[in-house]
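User: Quick one: structure for sequence A, then sequence B.

Assistant: Sequence A:
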Amino acid sequence: MFQLLQKSAGKLLGFKVPPVVAINQCRALAQQQQQLQPTELNPFRAPRSVWIENLDTIEEQKLGIQELSSEIFGATPRIDIVHQNIEWQRKYRFVSFANTKTRNEVRGGGRKPWPQKGLGKARHGSIRSPLWRGGGIAHGPRSPTTHFYMLPFFNRVLGLVSTLSIKLAQDDLHIVKDLEIPTEDPQYLRELVQERAWGPSVLFIDSSDIMPRNISAGADTIDHINLMPVYGLNVYSMLKHDTVVFTKKAAEEIESKLTEHLHRSDARSLMTKFKVDR
């Protein structure tokens, strides 16, 4: 078998490979791969390093380096799961109020329009039948109609992982020390976002839902700058904003929570309680 492979390789390359040299090369390559570290074999598993920035000055200052898990912030994006999350978030809060009347609800039509026999006409019992103009609608929409459904738990988790990885790969995810700014003037936030090229819309995420007073008052009058606690993080909001800014504590918290969910073993009991028919 080895001789056949050697002959075919020699024909393709145009020269003959001595069997001893080929065996030695294979052994050397195998030893070299065994000596490599796991991170060198798979560079995508290396931790992602992100600068920790400040918010107390408009000019950007580097305060340190934050290492993020490649399993959460460096995963291979699943665009199909991201799309599932977006459709789920758009539909679970939508209620259709379109409504049509049936033949029993349309006004009039209680009398038989003409006798059953004798006139040579088709048989009708009411002028409000769906066959008549101005009559009821058969199988029309009946309000309120909800479009709610529950996306599987791990599809939601993978949606967050994919979106975080996409944002970091596109350099649209930043880490700051905290959300303390020196003034509550909205112009300060506008100049800060413009100076750092964060795009027209920014989402600030903190570990608590009680934000600092200055940034809360400053962002209150700016529609495209929003604040969100880490427990409200979702795919739709991250993709809706150009830049996502985490505090150091919020990044650590979302990383630990998603890592826990990715490796938990009670998936069946988790998804059972979200079934609609229970």
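Sequence B:
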Amino acid sequence: MTSNIAESINAALVSARELPIYNFLEEVRKMFGRWNCSNCKEATQTYTTLGKKYQEILTLNETMSTRMTVVPSTEYLHMVNDGGRNYTVCLLERKCVCGRFQVDELPCPHAWAVLKSKFLMPEEYCPNYYKPNTVVMTYDVPMYSLPDRNDWNIPAHVAEEVVLPSKWKRPPGRPKKKLDKPLSELLQPKYQHSCNICGQGGHNRRTYRNAPRNK
């Protein structure tokens, strides 16, 4: 929810960005093809109600709900006590005060406690796009590779067209490979290492004996 997917893709294509445009696009296609095949294979070999990742989250939420107590208010509205703090869960609207039920769309630990008290299956309160069949349909579209350049059928009017470079003057120096950091990141205080023994900065654990001590 906090990271742009484009940043993850850029990190995976650091070496490919040095290639010419045709080779770069081919590397992008092969990378997405590998991801597509891997995700489809994993979903095909999943025999649980939900995908592997989401089934693990559901199991973790169940473990966290073991010591919670449930007090029903209505058929769908319940109060859950978690370590002395009360949370309101509405099964009809699939909402919880903690916010995880409506954001993740998976039963949070508080909703899990309510479902167990009513002997309901948590998978019935999960959306279909977390289920393996939906994941298989998502990655069912194949990614075809480009044919060899010798087999390209280029129309005559396209082959005869002359494409001139853009009127742009390259600035002096080497081109930047890293993005300029925004002002908000530059103003953040830098992390300073501190000693594990005394907790003070300026030295570490190895140089602790030689560090100046306050009298």
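Residues 21-44 form the longest helix (24 residues). The radius of gyration is 28 Å.

User: Thanks, that's what I needed.
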